[in-house]
Design brief:
The chain has one domain. Helices cover about 20% and strands about 10% of the residues. The chain is built from 5 helices and 8 strands. Strands 3, 4, 5, 6, 7 and 8 form a 6-stranded mixed beta sheet that branches. A two-stranded antiparallel sheet has the order 1-2. The radius of gyration is 25 Å and the shape is globular. About 5% of the residues have low confidence.
Length: about 350
């Protein structure tokens, strides 16, 4: 009995089959990547929210320890010489004085906390620590090391120490400047208060008053308008992206005069929260109050910013929110009535 010859099956894929497989893989990758990015951003936003929540708890624990005093914001307003010399600075930052309340007692113990962070070798060594809770994972600009070119640790947050948004026009107006909740009281602050205000002074309600908000993206070579007292900092100016720098507190202003576009109505100043690339004439690097340069800013999806309020709750602030409402949220005792949908 004769047998039919065996036919050999072709080995491997044909070119057409290979192309089909590659196309299917490419489609699957295209479908999966946006989902992966969304999951990563959700995780980063959640971590950022937790960072702010821990700062809110630290504020309350600080107040309990120091008889109702709030931590200094590092920066305050010199109303005696106002408006010619509006800002005055503490020797230490908000982030320095809350270190024991965010499980960083060892770093706090290294420092002479009443001295400027560049004043002693121990202070410098401590200020060069990278503290995870002070960093937002969504920051697209900060070095991955968490350190600047001089080796100092970054922060992506800051206490909102004042606002100079005009309560009528919604535009930046220095003559309408008022304190935020965590402002530095000044050189005559009562002993033992670390230069901060008091929780009893928040008459607008702690749930209606911002304590700390994201200012994500403050990086070199952005320039502070204020000189560094030691001549160090960033080319002799205060390096406000460092957690140990008192100038890490910031004012909520919106863009400077001449950078608001075509008019003076409130609708032409939708930049106090997450100004993006900034309005016309408002470059990030060279101009204070533009984009992330000393304003509320983040890289989260949806053009939003997260903030912790004085009662400890964390809330999302919508990009493009009404600037007058933004002023209301910064002032601790303005007596304003907030809209229900802010």
């Amino acid at each position: 009995m004769s047998r039919l010859p065996l036919t050999r099956r072709p080995q491997g894929f044909t070119l057409i089959e290979l192309l089909v497989v590659i196309a299917i893989i490419a489609i699957l990758i295209g479908l999966l990547l946006p989902a992966i990015q969304k999951v990563r951003e959700a995780a980063a936003r959640s971590q950022c929210q937790n960072n702010l929540k821990q700062m809110g708890l630290a504020i309350h624990n600080f107040a309990s320890t120091y008889n109702g005093s709030l931590p200094t914001g590092g920066e305050g307003t010199d109303f005696v010489n106002f408006p010619t010399g509006p800002s005055q600075f503490d020797n230490f930052s908000f982030f320095t004085v809350i270190l024991p309340f965010v499980e960083q007692q060892n770093i706090y113990n290294m420092m002479t906390v009443t001295a400027y962070y560049e004043a002693t070798s121990n202070n410098i060594a401590a200020a060069q620590s990278v503290i995870k809770i002070f960093l937002c994972p969504s920051n697209a600009l900060r070095p991955a090391t968490g350190k600047d070119n001089e080796g100092f640790g970054y922060t992506d947050y800051g206490p909102t120490v004042y606002t100079d948004i005009d309560p009528t026009t919604g535009l930046k107006n220095p003559s309408t400047r008022v304190n935020g909740a965590l402002h530095y009281v000044g050189p005559n602050a009562p002993p033992g208060t670390f230069g901060g205000s008091s929780i009893s002074g928040i008459t607008d309600g702690t749930s209606n008053t911002i304590a700390v908000a994201e200012d994500c993206g403050r990086v070199e070579p952005q320039v502070s308008p204020y000189p560094d007292p030691t001549g160090g900092g960033n080319n002799g100016r205060r390096a406000f992206w460092r957690w140990a720098e008192p100038d890490s507190g910031y004012g909520v202003s919106g863009p400077p005069a001449g950078a608001t576009g075509t008019g003076t109505a409130v609708s032409n100043n939708p930049y106090p929260v997450n100004g993006g690339n900034g309005p016309p004439g408002c470059p990030w690097i060279t101009t204070n109050n533009c984009g992330p340069n000393d304003e509320m800013f983040s890289f989260h999806d949806g053009n939003n910013v997260q903030a912790v309020f004085c009662d400890g709750h964390v809330q999302i602030l919508r990009g493009g929110m009404n600037s007058i409402v933004c002023r209301m949220l910064v002032t601790p005792n303005g007596g304003e009535v907030l809209p229900s949908d802010f």
